[in-house]
Amino acid sequence: MYRLNYLFLFFTMTLGCFAQTGLPGTSRLTIGSKESNSLFGLNIIEYGRGKTSSNKNIEGSVYLFKNWNNLAKIWLNDKIFNIDLINYNLQNERFEIKLDNDSILIVNPMANKVEKVIVNNSVFKSYYNKELFRDTFFELIWFSDDYSLLSNYKLKITPGDINPLTKTYINPKKYIHNRSFYIKKSNGEQMTPIKLKKSEILKLIDDLYVNQVKRFVKKRRLKYNKVSDVKDVLAYYDSIKNSKKKG
Predict the structure, then answer these.
(1) For the chain, how far is it from start to end, CA to CA, in angstroms?
(2) Distances in whole angstroms, Cα of residue 209 to Cα of each of 114, 156, 237, 240
(3) Radius of gyration of the chain (CA)
(4) What is the pLDDT of residues 147-174, one digit of tens each?
(5) Which residues on adjacent β-strands are paired with residue 155?
């Protein structure tokens, strides 16, 4: 526990120092660069948390993204940090920065007071998770003055199938990434689960605009269960609602 707390403190202090050496409010932390070696070096190897999570007996990955070659921006203490080689650990509910094959840097939403993280244009923000009784990262899919549409990923393991004679797996265990969706009103902290289907998406639309939105969906051949299409639907709804207010 002491080493973990030291890592969190070291991460926050180091990033703060590094931000002062580059452009105002921004910096690039590239693994293997002179800057990363001088800032982290043996300290992270010594106080790090060891290798990235893996289990050779289970197919798939505990990480959200297929590989570590992701570009990210981290908003921390009114500064923006550009990070390479980042991924999201679904098992431990945290972002991790890969320093080398044997060491990672943990980005904890509570300890590091991270405002938001953008990875490959996907926006993640820290919210209180009442199931875990702590802050965790949710993906911000859509937001307006009234509400936000969020998603959260959970890691599941399929049991697999065992041959009763040989006691070996016919079909191995697999990691499954389950995605859930929530609505969070702007004037409250509570999140309400929502499914991406026609009946529930249309509940987000004022009755005055429902038919207009339906025509838009039909004309564009959009699907209510597709995230990118739902974003288009809500953006269209927001535009016609705001246009009505201005008129």
Answers:
(1) 59
(2) 37, 39, 7, 8
(3) 22
(4) 999 999 999 998 888 877 777 777 888 9
(5) 177
Beta strands in the chain (DSSP E): 26-29, 58-59, 72-76, 79-83, 86-89, 94-100, 103-107, 114-119, 122-129, 134-143, 147-158, 161-162, 169-171, 173-185, 191-194
Report the alpha-carbon distance of residue 227 to residue 230 in Å, rounded. Answer: 5
Query: Is the pLDDT assigned to residue 5 strictly greater than 50?
Result: no
Instruction: Determine how β-strand 173-185 pairs with β-strand 122-129.
Output: unpaired
50 pLDDT above the threshold of 50: no
Collapse the DSSP code of 96 into the 3-class scheme (helix H, G, I; strand E, B; otherwise coil) and give the result: strand
Quote the distance between the C-alpha of residue 123 and its chain's center: 7
Alpha carbon separation from 222 to 188, 198, 200, 215, 216 (Å, rounded): 30, 11, 15, 10, 8
- Residue 208: the pLDDT is 94
CA distance 55 to 173: 10
Place of tokens 């921006």: 73
